[in-house]
UniProtKB/TrEMBL annotation:
Residues 1-18 form the signal peptide. The keyword Signal applies. This is Endo-beta-1,2-glucanase SGL domain-containing protein. Keywords: Signal. Residues 72-534 form the Endo-beta-1,2-glucanase SGL domain.
Length: 537
């Protein structure tokens, strides 16, 4: 009897060797998701993160996620539908619409993700190091991040010297040559939202660099600070129309002329204005604090946004009512501002955004959707090309928009959940990653159809590294420290508290609802895992 139980203990120990060994594996297998159960990640989220970071980090390599020559990000890379390896660049012709999806063009938004990540690496964060330089000496990731930030600054300054009409801001650009050029469809044009995301990421990185006692680091902090100051000087000239109106996209008379040249001019493109209460707010704050606007204009900035901040109640089946801020589509990317500025330091806002994640998780759980929705690239077709972009993914009943496409889920939909509960966020990430082809040699795959019939054989900063940055906690804390030094922190808190307080003065509903866990898995519809990232490869 006694022998038997010893045997069964031994047997149990042997069996558990093939199960995940909770982050202690220096080189976890590429296809690690199926090795974990939901309970595993709920119990060991920090350990699960080690495997997650290790493989997402494979995206951060030359010619895939970025260009080491200029330290600039590439937008993303198509994958071979069979092997999962990155395919050749330039899969598209130069027609402007198609250029949007070219693998060597890059958005300013991806710069913001990159810099948020680097800020944590500079700070000496072990998880950022696991992403950037796993299995290397402790200082390696910090040094790499420092070099990248140095090269990046040179690239920005060269771009500014060549195309001074941008005023220091960035358009969409081609990053494959050492010197950046605007993509064909962004010649003489510059977007506000993307630059708002970029600027506050740099702001956070400057905080980290500036805290160092090393001269080199201080010099680099000062170099970036000069770039930030230059964008402050030009923010209103380039993007502010009048009476609270901010151009969503500005048309530049001539990108080669300096901002102050007598022949230079700026005007809003069409009627598009930046007045959303989501991530577009980041640029608004730059103008508000540093744009040199009169108090009347600052108040106008807030006033034009106010109508878009709307209270909504979510209700479905026995879930709800849960009070949330109305979404545009309620896509996960709309919560981006939480990564960059200290919104969650305000108790009301923290409670409201936690409610949003109650809704996001429970909406999928109650409908047995194997994942969650966010704007994302559609599947790739039989020739390996992306079919289209699905902007209108989210939660209809609590959105401003009325038409939706709800047939594709994406791993990055978990990033806002990550800011509140790592375990639950990873449970959803795992649920999607377990789908066929949802892991590849660069970590997670862009998206999968909910019926399991197709995936997007593509990898991008947006669909992958947002989750990594959220896992690191975003950079709001770094930003907050610098905001205090710059004397703008209290005003940020007061104004945000006041604006949200106006619309959410009644008690919030639904705060007792726990976050929900997945209730369905992506069906096996016959897809085969990538050969370079399959069990046993
Ligand atoms: C989808 O593709 C576009 C264009 O290549 C890219 O900018 C974006 O990051 C991709 N992913 C998401 C989630 O938007
Ligand atoms: C950007 O270029 C302009 C025009 O050459 C120059 O005056 C300015 O100092 C540059 N900004 C930075 C941050 O170097
Ligand atoms: C996404 O792909 C599916 C399947 O081909 C198609 O039915 C749908 O119209 C596509 N949507 C977009 C926005 O590309
Ligand atoms: C969406 O927002 C706009 C701008 O605030 C508003 O005019 C419109 O009525 C909203 N639509 C819905 C369906 O809520």
């Amino acid at each position: 009897m006694a022998r038997l139980s010893i045997l069964s203990v031994l047997f149990f120990a042997a069996a558990s060797l093939s199960a995940p060994n909770y982050g202690k594996n220096n080189n976890p297998p590429c296809r690690f998701a199926p090795l974990y159960s939901q309970d595993n990640v709920l119990e060991h989220p920090r350990d699960f993160a080690q495997d997650f970071l290790y493989w997402e980090g494979h995206f951060h390599q030359n010619n895939v996620g970025y260009n080491t020559a200029n330290a600039m990000t590439y937008d993303g890379t198509l994958l071979d539908p069979t092997t999962g390896l990155a395919t050749e660049k330039h899969p598209f012709s130069a027609a402007s619409k198609e250029l949007q999806h070219s693998t060597d063009n890059s958005g300013t938004i991806t710069q913001s993700i990159h810099i948020m990540l680097l800020a944590h690496a500079l700070d000496g964060d072990a998880d950022a190091a696991r992403f950037l330089a796993p299995n290397q000496p402790k200082k390696a990731a910090q040094q790499l991040a420092f070099q990248i930030m140095q090269t990046k600054l040179n690239t920005y300054l060269t771009f500014n010297a060549t195309y001074p009409g941008f005023g220091g801001f960035l358009p969409w650009f081609l990053a494959d040559k050492t010197m950046l050029t605007p993509t064909l469809d962004w010649v003489n044009r510059v977007p506000a939202l993307d630059n708002g995301e970029l600027i506050w990421a740099v702001y956070a990185a400057v905080q980290v660099l500036g805290e160092s006692s090393q001269k080199e680091w201080k010099d680099l902090a000062n170099g970036w600070q000069r770039w930030l100051d230059y964008t402050k000087k030009n923010a209103a000239r380039v993007f502010y129309a009048d009476a609270g109106k901010v151009c969503a996209v500005t048309t530049i008379k001539d990108q080669a002329l300096p901002v102050g040249d007598a022949r230079q001019s700026y005007k809003c493109e069409g009627s598009g204005t930046l007045n959303d209460p989501y991530e577009g707010e980041l640029f608004m704050w730059w103008l508000y604090f540093f744009g040199g606007l009169s108090n009347a204009n600052k108040q106008a900035l807030l006033a034009v946004k106010r109508p878009q901040l709307v209270r909504k109640e979510y209700q479905m089946g026995n879930i709800g009512p849960i009070t949330v801020q109305e979404g545009f589509w309620f896509s996960a990317h709309e919560q981006w501002k939480l990564l960059e500025l200290p919104y969650l330091s305000i108790p009301l806002v923290q409670r409201l955004f936690l409610n949003a994640e109650r809704v996001r998780t429970c909406n999928s759980a109650i409908q047995h959707i194997p994942g969650m929705f966010a704007s994302v690239n559609n599947s790739t077709d039989s020739s390996g090309q992306i079919i289209g972009y699905i902007s209108d993914a989210g939660i209809p009943s609590i959105s401003n928009q009325t038409t939706f496409e709800l047939d594709v889920v994406t791993p990055y939909s978990v990033f806002p959940v990550m800011l509140f509960d790592r375990g639950v966020a990873f449970a959803w990430w795992l649920d999607m990653a377990k789908g066929k082809k949802m892991q590849n040699p660069y970590g997670s795959t862009e998206s999968t159809r909910v019926d399991g019939t197709a995936v997007s054989s593509f990898v991008s900063w947006d669909s992958k590294i947002t989750t990594v940055v959220a896992n690191l906690g975003g950079v709001a804390e770094f930003a907050a420290s610098k905001m205090k030094r710059d004397g703008i922190y209290d005003e940020f808190i007061d104004v945000t508290q006041r604006e949200y307080g106006m619309k959410f003065s009644q008690p919030l509903n639904g705060e007792r609802q726990p976050l929900c866990l997945p209730t369905a898995t992506v069906p096996d519809a016959g897809l085969v895992d990538y050969t370079q990232c399959s069990k046993g490869s």
